[in-house]
């Protein structure tokens, strides 16, 4: 019996929100966060080769990132705190090219987000702190990374800025402030 519920994400093919079954009792909880058989039955038949984890404070925005030649499928989740997680379709010829989908991932809701190859990915931390984990289907290659500005108006992501903050208060890496736009990515592919 499958321990997950899988939901498609609007009209963007391939994106999936996964809700694992959580077993709670007086001791706390137990959850199976990944089972290759359950995921394959749900149409996510991917071999993951690398796990990553980050810790961030409220207002940190990481993204929008992708790898060019060594594209990665990703399975992401927040194990502490809350994030708004976003995927942007960059698949050539896709009917939803340039469209985005966002979902809140938190330690409380236990949701995971599957992002297939061909998408840019990023997230914004909504809680005081967040720990974020993700599985990748290919290894990270530093010379192969690409990105898009988080606030590219052509994409129009509606980031839920944390209460008491403005866009100017968001914390980005230097690299994430220098990415080009969706139009720039299209010219370099």
Folded structure, characterized:
The chain is mostly beta strands and 189 residues long. It is built from two helices and 13 strands. A hairpin with a 7-residue loop joins strand 1 and strand 2.
Structural class: mainly beta
Given the C-alpha coordinates, what overall shape results?
globular
User: H/E element string?
Assistant: EEEEHEEEEEEEEEH
Strand order, sheet with most strands: 1-2-10-7-12-5
Percent strand: 35-45%
| Cα-atom radius of gyration | 16 Å
| Terminus-to-terminus distance | 42 Å
Number of helices: 2
- The whole-number mean of residue pLDDT values reads 95
Q: Give the total of beta strands.
A: 13
Helix content: under 10%
Low-pLDDT sequence parts: none
How would you characterize the largest beta sheet?
6 strands, antiparallel
Topology of this protein?
Blueprint: E1 4-8, E2 16-20, E3 22-25, E4 28-31, H1 36-41, E5 50-57, E6 61-67, E7 74-80, E8 82-89, E9 100-106, E10 112-115, E11 119-125, E12 129-136, E13 145-147, H2 182-188
Antiparallel strand pairs: 1-2, 2-10, 3-4, 5-12, 6-11, 6-13, 7-10, 7-12, 8-9, 8-11
What's the short story on this structure?
The protein is mainly β and 189 residues long.
Summarize this structure as a short list of keywords or feature phrases.
189 residues; mainly beta; six-stranded antiparallel beta sheet; 2 helices
């Amino acid at each position: 019996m499958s321990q997950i519920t899988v939901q498609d994400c609007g009209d963007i093919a391939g994106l999936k929100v996964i809700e694992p079954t959580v077993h709670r009792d007086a001791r706390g909880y137990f959850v199976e966060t990944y089972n290759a058989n359950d995921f394959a039955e749900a149409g996510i038949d991917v071999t993951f080769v690398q796990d990553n984890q980050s810790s961030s404070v409220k207002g940190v925005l990481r993204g929008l990132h992708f790898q060019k030649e060594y594209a990665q499928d990703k399975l992401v989740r927040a194990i502490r705190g809350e994030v708004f997680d976003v995927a942007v379709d960059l698949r050539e010829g896709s009917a939803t090219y340039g469209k985005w989908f966002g979902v809140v991932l938190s330690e409380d809701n236990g949701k995971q987000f599957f992002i297939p190859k061909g998408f840019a990915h990023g997230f914004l931390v909504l809680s005081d702190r967040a720990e974020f984990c993700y599985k990748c289907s290919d290894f990270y290659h530093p010379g192969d990374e690409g990105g898009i500005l988080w606030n590219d108006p052509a994409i129009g992501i509606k980031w839920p800025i944390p209460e008491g903050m403005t866009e100017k208060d968001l914390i980005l890496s230097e690299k994430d402030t220098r990415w080009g736009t969706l139009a720039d990515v299209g010219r370099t592919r």
